[in-house]
């Protein structure tokens, strides 16, 4: 019945330290060996997600930057949708991001993570992949080759950014939260759900044979697209309110996805923790 498993990373497959639990690694390896196809669907950069994939020891499809990039299991890029350069150049300006300087502005280029200042505290989120940023002069960037703009900051500051984005761009961009302190911007054609549909069509698998896991607002249409969606118990309350009928499972800090997969595929008692 279940042929494909699509899962978010942070707050979902990864634990509270943004790392993989051993039982998660063992579970996904066992299921892939049984012929189940995995899809990682994340807001993270492709290079970052690829590093986590390598530690998992499986060959999934990678949906990254919330769907702005899709890579096949052999690392071939099969889909890309960049923000227009003129839009990127506006998105990094102080009148959008805030002249107070409290917002950390990030750009996800094809092979690089660009940031407007040194922020070593962010590197703890990338322990498994080893992914690192490069500091650049944002107003001088030409805006090309950018899949995603990411604003990191406090809730009130990000709310003001969201108002600025709506005022200037309306619905011409896809704006979503991946965490309470992360506001992300992609083209309006991009989402995890659209990317999941793209991969399922490529595989020739109906959504009714797909299981999906998520925890935040950027997972909404991923969960709406899959035939068998599951929401983490630690999910954003706004996501719970938006999708009240999606079953909730364990917490990410208790390897909730791995335990749910063991139930769905009757693997209880076969794996070691």
From TrEMBL:
Domain of life of the organism encoding this protein: Bacteria
Q: Which InterPro entries is this protein grouped with?
A: Cof, HAD-like_sf, HAD-SF_hydro_IIB, HAD_sf
Q: Name one Pfam family in it.
A: Hydrolase_3
Give GO terms: molecular function aspect only.
metal ion binding; phosphatase activity
Which family does the record claim for this protein? Belongs to the HAD-like hydrolase superfamily. Cof family.
Q: Which PANTHER family match?
A: PTHR47267, PYRIDOXAL PHOSPHATE PHOSPHATASE YIGL (PTHR47267:SF4)
Put simply, this protein is called: Cof subfamily of IIB subfamily of haloacid dehalogenase superfamily/HAD-superfamily hydrolase, subfamily IIB
Query: What organism does the record attribute this protein to?
Result: Paraburkholderia megapolitana
């Amino acid at each position: 019945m279940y042929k494909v498993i699509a899962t978010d990373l942070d707050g979902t497959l990864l634990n509270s330290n943004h790392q993989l639990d051993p039982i998660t690694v063992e579970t996904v390896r066992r299921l892939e060996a049984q012929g189940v196809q995995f899809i990682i669907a994340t807001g993270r950069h492709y290079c970052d997600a690829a590093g986590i994939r390598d530690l998992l020891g499986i060959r999934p499809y990678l949906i990254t930057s919330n769907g702005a990039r899709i890579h096949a299991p052999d690392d071939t890029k099969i889909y890309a949708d960049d923000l227009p350069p003129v839009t990127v150049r506006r998105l990094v300006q102080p009148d959008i991001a805030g002249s107070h300087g409290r917002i950390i502005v990030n750009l996800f280029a094809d092979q690089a993570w660009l940031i407007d200042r040194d922020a070593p505290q962010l590197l703890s989120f990338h322990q498994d992949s080893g992914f690192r940023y490069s500091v650049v002069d944002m107003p001088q960037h030409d805006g090309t080759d950018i899949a995603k703009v990411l604003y990191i900051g406090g809730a009130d500051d990000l709310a003001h950014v969201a108002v600025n984005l709506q005022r200037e761009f309306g619905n011409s961009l896809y704006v979503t939260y991946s965490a309470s302190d992360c506001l992300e911007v992609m083209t309006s054609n991009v989402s995890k759900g659209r990317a999941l549909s793209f991969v399922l069509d490529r595989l020739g698998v109906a959504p009714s044979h797909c299981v999906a896991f998520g925890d935040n607002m950027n997972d909404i249409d991923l969960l709406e697209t899959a035939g068998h969606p599951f929401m983490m118990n630690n999910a954003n309350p706004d996501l719970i309110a938006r999708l009240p009928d999606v079953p909730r499972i364990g917490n990410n800090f208790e390897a909730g996805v791995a335990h749910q997969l063991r139930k769905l595929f009757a693997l209880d008692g076969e794996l070691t923790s």
